[in-house]
Design a protein that fits this description.
The chain is mainly β. It has 7 domains: 11-225, Jelly Rolls; 237-320, Sandwich (Immunoglobulin-like); 322-404, Immunoglobulins (Immunoglobulin-like, Sandwich), CATH 2.60.40.10; 428-641, Sandwich (Jelly Rolls), CATH 2.60.120; 650-722, Immunoglobulin-like; 737-956, Jelly Rolls (Sandwich); 967-1019, no CATH class. The chain contains 6 helices and 82 strands. The strands form 16 sheets. Strands 1, 4, 5, 7, 12, 13, 14 and 16 form an 8-stranded antiparallel sheet that branches. It has an 8-stranded antiparallel sheet with strand order 2-3-6-15-8-9-10-11, with no helix packed on it.
Length: 1021
């Protein structure tokens, strides 16, 4: 007998709690005799007892359990019906047991509930745990074994044990408490209870309950509460360690929070410590430190205990730190050019700043910026900034400045003087199929879609470069029959011109294999990452790459990239534009020679694959490979040699025309390549602008006099260059919404103001649409006061109403804007007010209201979809939706404000209809039907400027005769808002909203200075 008569648990309470949660299968093990195990749940899967001890005393009463003997030679088990596989659960599930485990260390893989692919284990392997040599877990045959350290069921006691598969993990609860979780996704299979041999179960079972969903922690706790079990405490284990924290020196009102999580029997006693000493009163699961001073620096940890034991977390450091240099970790500049080091510090008084070069104080340099107006060789050195605030002094990381000497040797000769193993200048004539190695050792081939003869990277050198278009046929490859050196340098120039938002490779020499055990990574590769950074990687024969992230990519700009590996030092380094951006200790494994795969691939990655991947969009020039590591001085000299001081300036990027809002501000800028310092003179309508002598021209308080044609004259020691002109247009809402839209020249404009008929008229062209399936016309429109008589169209999801416009090249251009007004009145799932798209490949543009009622602007890259959007929808309100794409960046505007942008490629819809009121335009019927009103839909063959978008929105709103001005001031840490006139103050967490009224706010209004980032605005009636 396993439990004393008269001490039975609350059977009625257990049955009530389990029944309330509607089990699929419920086995009571109370048959007492016979061979049939009855399913008391709704599933109807019975089992057969084989050699099992019947009528054992259970938790809930005499004769209420069955026993699986401890005899390892016994073959006792339960076999479920032959159709057991029909009862497998592929999604979330719960398996709940009341069991009594016999002794400690009885077996190494005790099987509870099993199938042909998955087994739930009371014990998993031999391992010293809290109660003995066992762990609980799951075996996924042919995949993996999963287990939890320690134990799950103590010996010689009744236990309540629950396995829960939820999402991407399986949890195990012991006696109502979460014991741990395993990262796996396994089905539940019910073929047997126990297994023969070493997997044999050695326990008594009183209850087994199966659910076809994941029970919650609260439900599991409620079930356990009816069992009357008083288990020994599970000692705490730290699951999430407190994390290090840094505070910028001088930050006012600085605060940090340390947190942790632990598993174990509740309640847990908690005590936070600093440097090993208890912090009085710090006994909660988080430690919040406010008004931090130097006395708060130190090592923080947490002690956790219960009646079963204790645990101490790892230490987490709180450190007061210096800012990093805004210019990056190191700099290389040409002789005579200006450069600076600067840091950004909190806007408080009391700092003492001391600049140092090579460890020596620079007299008189005490500001947060160190300017070197005309860098000379003598300025080369290591710079740092010593910052003192109160009683704390910190020093920035050092930054090395190399002032490269004025080059006296052409670029190509400078490279050859350093004896590269291979050197491909990529200056072959048009029509060439072979790329030539200047060292006559290793030539290669161009594929068909390589653009030969594009302008090169080297100033004053007529050698050309090659361009790549991002396709499988746009690459160049070189093979080699020799082993690769064990140390190296590789250098080249790259200019990305497209493909932002995806990861692409301008140059690769790599091998990887994830199918072998262990997997390996070899060779090296350069990437333009999907996060817009230049990146260098090398492989050291391990499963992971050694990665150094570089600087942000500037599209359209030539960039000098160098990666080196020094075998003696065991160090990999990455240089950008002559300056070291990072170096780390590493090993290196060169790729093995293979006649099947290229050694070098230009314009693409994955040299281990026949076709490659990561196809680059842009230009590559001057590729050199060395069998030794270049020094920092070598790299700087090569970079400087690209800028011939005897050549007049070359404008690489002209100022770009833009629109400015009336009263608003904007800027024009130019990119110039020059070997000597530059001067700038901006001109408007051909006349010099007094004082406009910087690289960037800032325009403020735009009015009619601001509009015009702008250009800049750039001068260096060798000559003059004049940029192309850029036009500035100053915009404001016109008298009507229609006039404001027409000013921006849409290629199609459907006002949706018809009151009858089936034609949706394009008021500016011939892209007329057809109303289908009962669109209701003549509904109240989006325009208030201004064009208020213009009506809208009503769409109904259940009727699949829509407007269809036949495909036309004029409304599916590479640069694009899509615009409409939309009001959601209901519906579920995705609803699209406007779509022009294709699928497989994914292309075009879509507006969605998603199932969470969030506005999205989605687009197709040709290989997938990307979306922007986070603004919640209020049913019954009009929203102005605008999506723009300028060929490189897409932007999403809602109610005149930009709520997101993404650098990404978009492929135009090349054959399918445009739909208003529905989506999936590649399908004859469509999908994602809209529920609500749509008005004023338009398409443009260009990206509207933010100013133009805002004027459209403002043109639809009621006119404001006098707008109050909101003033925001800070005083001693307080935030004070003031304004004149009658207005409602509103606040939001982001510019895109949602905006809410601030109750009772009147000027002056003092805001909560401890609140998170907050935006404010005024609205008028």
């Amino acid at each position: 007998m396993l439990i004393t008569p008269g001490a039975w648990a609350d059977l009625a309470g257990w049955e009530s709690a389990v029944s309330a949660d509607t089990p699929r299968n419920w086995y009571r093990f109370d048959e007492g005799s016979g061979t049939t195990l009855v399913d008391h749940g709704s599933g109807g899967l019975s089992g057969q007892y084989i050699g099992v001890g019947m009528a054992e005393d259970g938790l809930f009463g005499a004769g209420e359990a069955v026993a699986f003997p401890a005899d390892p030679t016994a073959d006792d088990r339960v076999e479920f019906a032959s159709n057991w596989a029909d009862f497998n659960i592929a999604g979330d599930w719960t398996a709940e047991f009341i069991l009594y485990k016999y002794g400690s260390g009885q077996g190494n893989a005790q099987a509870l509930l099993n199938g042909s692919g998955v087994s739930l284990r009371l014990e998993q392997w031999n391992s010293m745990g809290i109660y003995g040599d066992y762990r609980g877990g799951i075996t996924h045959y042919g995949v993996a074994d999963y287990y939890l350290e320690g134990t799950v069921a103590p010996p010689d006691e009744w236990s309540h044990m629950v396995f829960v598969r939820t999402g991407g993990q399986t949890q195990i609860y012991l006696n109502g408490v979460l014991f741990g979780s395993m990262p796996n996704v396994v089905p539940l299979e019910m073929q047997t209870i126990s297994r023969a041999g070493a997997d044999k179960l050695r326990a008594s079972l009183d209850e087994l309950v199966v659910y076809d969903r994941a029970l919650t922690a609260a439900q599991i706790a409620a079930h356990f509460a009816t069992t009357g079990i008083t288990p020994p405490a599970i000692p705490p284990t730290i699951q999430t360690q407190p994390q290090p924290q840094e505070i910028l020196i001088g930050t006012p009102d600085a605060s940090v929070t340390f947190a942790f999580s632990a598993l174990g029997t509740l309640p847990l006693d908690i005590q936070w410590m600093k440097d090993g000493v208890d912090i009085p009163g710090a006994t909660s699961d988080t430690l919040v430190l406010t008004d931090i001073t130097t006395e708060d620096e130190g090592a923080y940890s947490v002690f956790v205990a219960n009646s079963g034991g204790s645990a101490v977390s790892e230490e987490a450091m709180l450190t007061i730190v210096a800012p990093t240099f805004e210019q990056g970790p190191n700099q290389t500049v040409l002789t005579g050019f200006a450069t600076e080091f600067s840091v950004e510090l909190p806007d408080v008084e009391g700092y003492s700043l001391v600049w140092k070069k090579d460890g020596n104080t620079l007299p008189g340099e005490t500001g947060d910026t160190l300017l070197i107006p005309s860098a000379q060789t003598i300025n080369s050195g290591v710079y740092s900034l010593e910052i003192t605030f109160g009683d704390k002094t910190v020093t920035t990381n050092t930054s090395r400045l190399i002032v490269a000497a004025t080059p006296t040797t052409p670029y190509a000769q400078t490279v050859l003087n350093h004896d590269p193993l291979y050197y491909w200048r990529l200056g072959e004539p048009a029509g060439a199929t072979d790329l030539f190695d200047e060292q006559n050792l290793l030539s290669g081939i161009y594929y068909l879609d390589v653009q030969i003869g594009v302008p090169g990277a080297i100033l004053g050198d007529d050698n050309t470069a090659v361009g790549f278009t991002g396709t499988v046929a746009s690459k160049a490859e070189v093979w080699d029959a020799y082993d690769q050196p064990t140390q190296f340098s590789v250098e080249f120039w790259a200019m990305r011109t497209g493909g932002a938002g995806t990861t692409t490779s301008p140059l690769t020499n790599r091998d990887l294999n994830g199918e072998v055990d262990p997997p390996y990574r070899r060779g090296w590769t350069f990437y333009a990452t999907d996060t817009n950074l230049w990146q260098f990687r090398i492989g050291d024969d391990s499963p992971e790459w050694v990665i150094i992230d570089g600087m942000p990519i500037v599209d359209g700009k030539w960039t000098h990239l160098v990666g080196t590996y020094n075998e003696t030092a065991g160090e990999v380094a990455f240089y950008i534009d002559g300056a070291l951006v990072g170096s780390v200790p590493a090993g290196y494994a060169p790729i093995d020679y293979s006649y099947l795969n290229p050694l070098f691939r230009f314009g693409a990655g994955a040299t281990e694959a026949e076709e490659g991947s990561f196809f680059f969009v842009g230009n590559v020039d001057e590729v050199a490979f060395y069998d030794y590591p270049l020094t920092a001085q070598d790299v700087a000299a090569h970079y400087a040699a690209a800028f011939d001081p005897s050549v007049e300036p070359v404008i690489s990027k002209d100022p770009i025309s833009t629109d400015l809002l009336e009263g608003g501000a904007g800027e024009l800028t130019v990119e110039v390549i020059s070997g000597t310092p530059l001067t700038f003179q901006w001109q408007k309508d051909g006349a010099d602008m007094p004082g406009a002598t910087d690289k960037t021209l800032v325009l403020t308080n735009a009015g009619p006099e601001t509009a015009g044609s702008y250009r800049v004259v750039v001068t260096n020691n060798a000559g003059v260059a004049t940029s192309a002109s850029a036009s500035i247009q100053v915009l404001g809402p016109l008298e009507t919404y229609e006039a404001t839209v027409l000013r921006d020249a849409p290629v199609a404009y459907w006002r949706l103001d018809e009151t009858s008929g089936t034609t949706a008229t394009d008021s500016v062209g011939n892209n007329h649409g057809v109303y289908m399936n009962g669109v209701v016309l003549g509904q109240p429109g989006a325009l208030e006061d201004n064009d208020a008589s213009n009506s809208a169209a009503k769409f109904t999801q259940s009727l699949q109403t829509k407007v269809e416009v036949p495909w036309s090249a004029s409304i599916n251009t590479p640069q694009y804007t899509m615009e409409c007004w939309a009001m959601i009145t209901g519906g579920v799932e995705h609803r699209s007010p406007m779509t022009s798209r294709g699928d497989y490949p994914q292309e075009g543009h879509i507006f969605y209201a998603n199932p969470s009622n969030i506005w999205l602007y989605s687009s197709g890259t040709g290989a997938g979809w990307t979306s922007i959007g986070d603004v919640p929808i209020v049913n019954g309100e009009w929203y102005h939706l605008v999506g723009t794409y300028d060929g490189a960046v897409k932007r999403f505007f809602i109610n005149g404000l930009e709520i997101g942008s993404s650098a990404v490629a978009i492929a135009p819809n090349d054959e399918n209809v445009l739909r208003i009121g529905a989506g999936m335009s590649e399908d004859p019927v469509g999908d994602y039907f809209f529920e609500g009103l749509i008005d004023e839909a338009a398409v443009y063959n260009k990206a509207l400027s933010p100013a133009a978008v805002l004027t459209h929105y403002l043109a639809a709103r009621p006119p404001v005769t006098e707008l109050p001005i909101l003033h925001i001031q800070t005083d001693a840490g307080n935030v004070l808002l003031t304004w004149d006139g009658t207005a409602q103050l509103q606040s939001a967490d982001a510019p895109s909203g949602p905006w809410i009224d601030v109750p009772g706010a009147a000027s002056p209004y003092q805001a909560d200075s401890d609140a998170a980032q907050t935006f404010w605005r005024l609205t008028t009636p």
